[in-house]
Structures are given as C-alpha cells and as structure tokens.
TrEMBL record, chains A, B:
SUPFAM superfamilies: Zn-dependent exopeptidases
Domain Peptidase M20 dimerisation: 199-357
Keyword annotations from UniProtKB, A to Z: Hydrolase, Metal-binding, Protease
Name assigned to this protein: Peptidase dimerization domain protein
Pfam (any one): M20_dimer
Length: 462, 462
C-alpha cells in the first residue's frame, strides 16, 4: 500500500469535487420539508458506492428514511469490515450566522486548516467522514489491494435518533455479519496529535411543554394572579441542577460509573490548555459540576442541557402577554451503564412531579441511546492505532468523547462485534453549528489511513 | 340628550361598519414592517374626526409615529375635555391561534356577547374604544348638544411605550390645556355591573440577553463543561421569585404602598368567583404571591412576568446544540409610588450581579410608566359614575386595575389634570391575545354613555 499517498495526490481534486456535490444536497432529516433531498442523497451514496467498486448496492426501505447497503465480498474465509456512516445532516439554523450558505460549499483557509477546509453543513458530520471510506474503497479496488471483505451501511436518520437503523439491524443480522465495525463520525485532538475515541456518552432527548391558562393573557390584567408558564418552566429547569451543578433527578446517578483515581490521572495526561479553551470560546470562566475537570465534565460525567427554549412574544419590540404555553428541548448526555430509557423515565416522572398544580405538563421523548466504551486491547483498536501511527507519524491517544453515537451500543448487542471510532474531524470544525467545515488535510488523511486499517486488521486477524 | 339612544339605534350599522374599516388596517407599532399601515391609520383617524365635527384636525409629527390632534372649541369660558386614545395595536402573534384573520374583522355571537362581538386585533384595545368617542362627538355636534369644548389626542405608540407622546405633551401644554382627561382603554366588571378604573399599575419592560460561548456548540462535545446560556437564563429568572412568590430584587418593594385592612376589605366586596375564574382559564389552581387574594395580586401588588423567551433550536425534531445566546423579555407591573426608572435600574443591577462569570449579560430597557390612582371624590369621577348609572341603570364600582397606561401619570404631571378611565371592554375580550373582540353592546353603550359624561361634567363644573 505504498502507493496510497500518490493515488490520493493524483485524484485529490476529484475527491474534493465529488464531496462538494454531495454536500449541495440539504439532507436535513429533522425537517420533513427536506424529505426529498434526504432520499436524493441516499441515491447519490448508492451511485458513489457502485462507482467505487462495491459488487452490489441496495437502497433498503425502512419505516423511515432508507439505508444504503453495499458490499464487496472477496473471500468468505477473510475477515469482514462493516463501515457505518450517515448521509443525513443537522438543521442549518441559525442560518443568519453562516458566513456562506450552508448548502453551497466553499473552500477557505483557516488558522487551523492552512490547506483549506470545506465549509458546508455535513462537511465533517458526517458526509465528509463517510465519503473518506468510499474513496478508500475506490483506491483498494482500483489497485487490487482490498485485503478483506467490506460492507457499507449508510443511514439517513442519525441526527434524529437512528430509529430505523435499529429496526434494520435487528432484522438483518446475517447480512450485516462482520468482524469489526468501523465508523468515522468523531474527532481527534489535533492534526498533529491524532486520537481514537474509546468512549461515547449516551443520550436522552426530550421535549417539554408547560401549559398554563387556555389562551394568551394580558400581563397587566392577569400578571401575578395566574401561573405564567414561562416563569414556571424556568423555575422547573433551574431546579434540575443544584448549587454544585449536580443533576437533581432522583436516581439519575445511581448507575454512573465512578472512575478510579488512576484512570482519572491517566485521562489528565491528554494535552489540554484551559486558557486556550476559554479563549477559543471567548468565555471568562468554564462552568460545570463541582469536583471535576473540564475534560472530565464533558466525557465521563453525565449532563443535562437545554438545547432550545421558546414561549410568548419573541418578535421585535414589546408585547405584554402571558403566554398560554412554554416549551423546551432538553438533552441529557449519559455515561456507560446509564440506561437511556430508564433515564428518560426518571426525567419524565420527576418533571411532572415538580410541576405546581397551576400548570399542566407534557413530556415527549425524542430519542436516545446508550453510552459505550471500546477496549483498547482488541485487534480493531490496535490496527487503527497502527494505521494512524503510519500516516501521522505519531501514536494516537485513546480518548473518551462527550458526544453520542447511540447506535454503537446497539451494534454490540445485535451484531456481537466491537466498533472502532476512527474520527478525523476536529472539535473546532463547528459540527452542529453555523460554518461547519472539514479540513482538506483531514479529509485526505482519512482516505490515506483507512486502507491501512484494512491491511493491519486483516493481518492481525490471521 | 334623551335622543342619544334613538340616534345610536338609527346609525348602528354605519357605526359598526366604520369601525370595521378602521380595524382592517394592521397598525402594529412594534413591528416596523407595518409602519406604512400605522401612518395610514393616523390619516383614517384624522378623516373620521373631521367628519364627526372637529373644527380642525392635525397630523402632528413626532420623533416616532404622529399624533392625531383635533378640537372643537365652542366657548373659552366652558370646560374642556381632552380625549386620549391610541390608533396602534398589539402584534397578532401567535397568528395560528386566531379563528379568523386578525385584520379581517368578523362579527360573531358569544355567550358573553349575545348581540355579537367584532373579532379583530384592536377591536377593543383601542380602536373600538377610541372610536366610541368619535361617534359620541358626531352625535353631540349633529344634534347641537355639545355642552363644552373637546380636544382629541390619538397616538400611535401606546403599545410600544408612548415615547413620542411624552415628547409631544411636554412641548404642547397650552394646546392640550384641559379640565379633565377622558380615556376609554380599560375594562369593566361585566355588562350588567359597570365599573370605573381608579388605579393602574406602572410598568417596566426590559429585554435580557445571556451570552455564553462565542458560537453554538455541540452539546455532546461541550455539554457539562461550559455554561449553557439557556440553563443559566432559566436559573437567573427562577431566582427572581422566592418560595412565596415574592420578587427577590433588592429594594423592589421599598416604595410599595401597603393597603390598610379596611381598604382591602372594601376591595374584597367586588363580586368575584374564583371557581368561574379558574374555569374560564381552564386552570386547576391560581398561583401568586403568598398572603394576597387573586384580585389583590393582579391590582395592588407588583409582579414580574416573562413575556417571551427564546434560544437554541426551536424547530421540528431534535438538535443537540448549546446555543451561544439566550434571550427573554421581562415586564414588571408596578404599583403607585414605585418609580419605573428606579425599578428598571434595580432590575438591571441585580440581573447583572447574579450572573455567573461564565456568561455575559446585556439588559435593554424597552419602556415603562408610572402607576396611578384616581380619587373618586372629584367631579370627573362623579360625572362618569352618573353617566354609567343613567345608561346601565346601576351605579358603577370603582376598581383598581392590573394593567398600565403609562401616560396617565405623565398627564397629571405635565397637564395638571385628572384622568377618568371610562372603559367599556371586558376582561374576556382577549386584548393582546388571539381572537381579540369587542361586544357590539359595549361599543354602542359607550357611544351612548360618553355624551352624558360631557353633560354632567359641564353641569358639575359650573
């Protein structure tokens, strides 16, 4: 595989242009207005997989958006790598904060990406990272050095909870049989210090509605005499954390794994500058659970964040109204061993319990997923580590991440195989935010590194 | 004036149709998209006043929307009544909750309004109530029984704080010289129990912004480690009330007038059914400051209500984001003696003080106004009381209202005259809410009652 670097250099412009075409399709799964675009993206992924060298590619129907399944089986006696990715993207709001339209990709240089980065929604999460695998396959097929079997499962509902993927995986265990699952949907520390994600947080995402009076009221005539749903909602949300920023939901921490002093000391070795972190976010102080460091707070500890809140008059000027309803979207990041369905139920019961009788409460669970930890002593991890070492010239650091890929725990349960999270994005890539981007360096480095994983994994499996 | 009832009956349909035409213009002063409509409404009011019999009517320019000033001076030795009203209206949001478009007036019968009510934004607040005075003038002029001088001052910024009106009044004290100010912009207890508003609450309206990180962040990667501006905002707002629903801003209650046991006993005599109140709003319990009744909470006690809140992702589905900013619009209703500028300052300082260092705070005052109490022993009140008694057949009850007409305190200061609040709306008319309406009975009864006020006030002034 000595020629991979040369191949990438030779086809670089085409690799970038193909990704740009894919990024132009606004495949926002959360907004039904874009459903045709989501479907068109599935078709585009199917074509790309066939062109890259898959023997068969199917658009598999599900209760929701379809799953693109492709495979190239060269020998049943060789190992099989299952590549998972997603072709749907996050909504682009707040749209006004984008410097260029989210679905009109542009390449711009940044301090962190001196070779340029592609700015577009989905560039990093996950179209760009998923497409690295398609191009890695192209390389291996065109150069006759695909060392094992490969299967692709690319879904369209990752940003809305992967409901149909769970349905699909449960019904296709034989089709999806594999020796290792490979996902690029996470990040690494920096372009000079690669890392491999070994832990993911779980997630419980709920929407709450507080209803007071049956109609909007004049705040002068009714103010002070009836429960204002917005005031009540702020009170209820505020009460979910105590003065140490511990979450107050009874039973919430019961199953939380407490790391040993040694493990925490090991974690603390990862390079991290609190000053640089604060400067990058333009904040004077970090904020979180008492007794834990920033890197612990966003990885080994569960959290509760309001992701959206709305109610009453939010237009220009002033309106003296007491709204009939107030709403919030709330997500909890969970750590391994916390069961997301149990946490969702604990939240729901608690939130209803703490409401004053003057309002009515509705809690709607959106989706969730379990946390996950990858052991670093299995051959999947070792093969990935060796691949990064070869292309970056430095051993990657194993790292717990605060994000969630809820499907990973399901894969282990249903397919009985371990998942290796070979992410090439950076925290600063602004995924889920305006001006999401993905470094050209990172994109090409991913295409270079993935075939090496295939090679080492096959060798180590012998 | 025995023929007023006959005149109203004869011209009833025209009176209704003229008001309907006025209601079709969406004069939303809070939203600059409607500025031409606001100006067109001023022109329509000018024409209506000229048609009704004013000798001169001017569109008076101000730094904001113009004030329509009209007058009919019959004898400088006779008293002068200054009628104040406003031609602007509240925004119509949430538009989806209107049963018919807010600016396409329709007449429908309701349980409370068996003779029908006009449903439209501004029907009661204040186009309908203001136009009663225009039609009352028409009657008095056409029938040669205008007993005194009359001046009209109709503004276009009442719903956004009357800033230009204050400017105008300060500069036109001679032009506006009067013996009593008459306003119909309040309500009465019911169609069988009229009441006159003798107290108004003051108002301080502010907008707050909480800024955390400099961009929206992925809640998985950053959740738990940085201050989430929405969580912080809910915590800050929640802390503004204690467990007894007292407001916690230091100094907030310092100037609040505590009513005597006798006064509170007198207030408690007003007919009120808590069960009917809860049923009308479809709430299981009322909610408010410990130690006060519902009618006290919404009249003699100050309040703090969130009128709007927004931040993060509020669209369909789920987005795991930590917003960079969170916002709220907050208004405080004040009681007489509380100075709104002082309260705005107390709020601002307190809100900044309680913020954690991990966020930045911006407080923008929108507008405000002083509370007011009208004595019931002056001839303005007596004349109004007698007028209602004549047309309704029952003595009106003096009543404190929770609403605010900030300009009333200014009138007293600048023009040295008392204001009489002859309101004909009902609490159930849904002003500031979807499906605002104004009873046909109330509209016509107002036109009938106003000329009697002119008559009695002139007689009592002799």
């Amino acid at each position: 595989m000595e020629n991979i670097k040369a191949y990438v250099t030779q086809h670089k412009d085409r690799f970038i242009n193909e990704l740009i075409e894919l990024l132009k399709i606004p495949s926002i799964s959360a907004d039904s207005a874009y459903s045709q675009d989501v479907l068109n993206t599935a078709d585009a992924v199917k074509k790309a997989l066939l062109t890259a060298g898959c023997d068969t590619v199917e658009i598999c129907e599900t209760p929701g958006y379809p799953i693109v399944y492709g495979e190239k089986i060269i020998d049943n006696n060789l190992p099989t790598v299952l590549v998972y990715g997603h072709y749907d993207v996050q909504p682009a709001d707040p749209i006004e904060l984008w410097d260029s339209p989210p679905f009109e990709p542009v390449i711009k240089k940044t301090e962190i990406h001196p070779d340029g980065a592609i700015f577009a929604r989905g560039s990093c999460d996950d179209k760009g990272q998923m497409y690295m695998h398609v191009k890695a396959l192209e390389y291996m097929v065109n150069n006759n050095n695909l060392p094992c079997n490969v299967k692709f499962m690319i879904e369209g509902e990752e940003e809305i909870g992967s409901t149909s993927l769970a349905w699909f995986v449960e019904r296709n265990q034989e089709k999806l049989a594999n020796d290792v699952i490979l996902i690029s949907d996470t990040g690494m520390i920096s372009n000079t210090q690669p890392s491999i994600t070994t832990g993911l947080r779980g997630l419980s995402y709920v929407e709450v509605e507080v209803t007071g009076p049956n109609r909007d009221l004049h705040s002068g005539l009714y103010g002070g005499a009836v429960a204002n749903p917005i005031n009540i909602l702020t009170k209820m949300i505020a009460s979910l954390h105590d003065e140490n920023n511990h979450i107050t939901i009874p039973g919430f921490y019961d199953k939380v794994e407490e790391l040993s002093t040694e493990e925490r000391a090991e974690m603390a070795k990862a390079p991290f500058s609190l000053e640089a972190y604060k400067k990058a976010l333009d904040i004077d102080e970090v904020y979180g659970e008492t007794g834990y460091t920033t890197n612990e707070r966003n990885s080994i500890r569960p959290t509760l964040d309001v992701n959206g809140i709305w109610g009453g008059y939010t237009g220009e000027g002033a309106k003296t109204v007491i709204a009939s309803k107030a709403h919030a979207k709330i997500s909890m990041r969970l750590v391994p061993n916390q069961d997301w369905k149990e946490i969702t139920e604990l939240f729901t019961n608690h939130f209803i319990n703490i409401a004053p009788k003057a309002v009515k409460i509705k809690v709607t669970p959106h989706h969730g997923g379990q946390g996950y930890v990858t052991p670093i002593n299995n051959i999947g991890y070792k093969a990935a580590s060796k691949a990064y070492e070869k292309t970056f010239g430095i051993t990657p650091i194993p790292q717990r991440s605060g994000g969630s890929i809820p499907i990973v725990a399901l894969f282990e349960k249903e397919l009985k195989s371990k998942t290796i999270l070979m992410g090439f994005g950076l925290d600063s890539d602004a995924i889920h935010s305006p001006n999401e981007h993905f470094g050209i360096f990172n994109y090409l480095k991913g295409i270079e590194t993935i075939p090496l994983f295939f090679k080492y994994f096959t060798e180590m499996s012998k």
